[in-house]
Specification:
homodimer, alpha+beta, Arc Repressor Mutant, subunit A, Chorismate lyase, 2 domains, 8 helices, DNA-binding, Bact_HTH_transcr_reg (chains A, B)
Amino acid sequence: MVDMSGLEFTPPKYAQIVRTLQERIEDGTYPVGEKLPSETRLVREFGAGRSTVVRALQILSMQGWIEREHGRGSFVKGVPHQAVERSHAGASAFEAPENSKSDQIVCAGRMSVPATIAETIGLPENAPAIMRRRLVLVDDEPSELVTLWFPLDVAEGTDLGDPTPISIGAREHIQRVKQLRPSLVFERLSARLATDEENELLGLEKGTPVLGIVARIVDTSGEVLAVAEVVLPGDLHELEDSYSAV
Amino acid sequence: MVDMSGLEFTPPKYAQIVRTLQERIEDGTYPVGEKLPSETRLVREFGAGRSTVVRALQILSMQGWIEREHGRGSFVKGVPHQAVERSHAGASAFEAPENSKSDQIVCAGRMSVPATIAETIGLPENAPAIMRRRLVLVDDEPSELVTLWFPLDVAEGTDLGDPTPISIGAREHIQRVKQLRPSLVFERLSARLATDEENELLGLEKGTPVLGIVARIVDTSGEVLAVAEVVLPGDLHELEDSYSAV
DNA sequence: CTTAGCCACTTGTTTGGTCAAGTTGAGCGG
DNA sequence: CCGCTCAACTTGACCAAACAAGTGGCTAAG
């Protein structure tokens, strides 16, 4: 039972048609906006049954390469771009390792949750939780204030309440020690004025606008693993994002 | 030949099967990890041909609800969190139709671009462009200020410079009249204080923080179709976003 | 006990049909 | 010139049938 280098795995015909049409869209053989050959024509060209051609067209349609219009034809939409960059400030805060040079742990330990976080973390106001707050420095100047909140059962047995830097980041730490894996992040973002406390820590003047981000990080079962609060002084930060217009 | 209230649009059978199976996954009838009934079984249950059932399963598979294994069966993966909500404020501004009830066109016409927009739209400061600014009202109160900027060659021959509402939205309008299709959106977002002009239009007090969003909308060739500037008073708006933690 | 073969069951792919329904344009009559 | 009808072309939905190929369990031979 050799099989040898017989790695000549021939992809199914519908996949070949998909690939061919994608290439033609990419290289401009079928320009954007233009009408594709009709199903019947493609059937003849590729020597396939109509169902096979239709299947290929349906895949292209679902992937956003073409648009199909009943009674008119299929039209080129363009090359779909899925891979878009996003800011993901909340996830970054949870992910980022703590570095004693660029990060200054403001405080860490058991604390009662403030009203602004209570609902997000799913605990009553003033209930105890583990808080971990750090100031991110750029050129030795305070640039960003990150506060992570953990439910007690998540933080139990971890070093999240210790004021020593966690060099691998909170995500890795929780995942290693507690086998918990984050699955989804819900992020809320708004512009507001900095609180007195934030002004002091970040060295801002009264009345400075900040970008406030509150992210809820949950695992597959919907359990809250952590809440990240990120405060970005408006004059120092811009968030960037890009996405497909389709 | 009316048809009248015959608005009972019956979705195609494959779509009904998709919907039904999605519901069963959502409500736990088919738990995550479990094996779905075989194709033959589903064919019997839904009274459909195998091709139809397979089509439904293929859609579910492509959308990430299930995983299909050759020779073994189809298995529930879970509810996909791809269809995540994203604020996409910039795209919305470009897309949204103008309604004379909820929108008030502040001004529309040829204008020289300010410094804040110049670089984004790719024109020198004070170069002429078509501007279109509207105030979005909620409960007759100003809630949001949207300004669209168009390069002259994009706006030429369109109604984008007219102060009358464009009921189909700028995107549709450009697409119909000029055959230009937006492809990608680059968005920048920051917190800042409202300008005097914005304070006046939005009826804000001095020193109010706002969320400022500047979006560059480009077509497939990278040409800028429009720049959207959205100003959201901080106390009225929160942007929400969710994404996979992976 | 191990293994090879067989069989039932499963999904994967492809074909070739039918009927329905939207679109377009040519031709015709007013 | 306008509006109508109609035929041709298009995609949409569906089905029955066939064959390929992977999986898993049973059984009988080694």
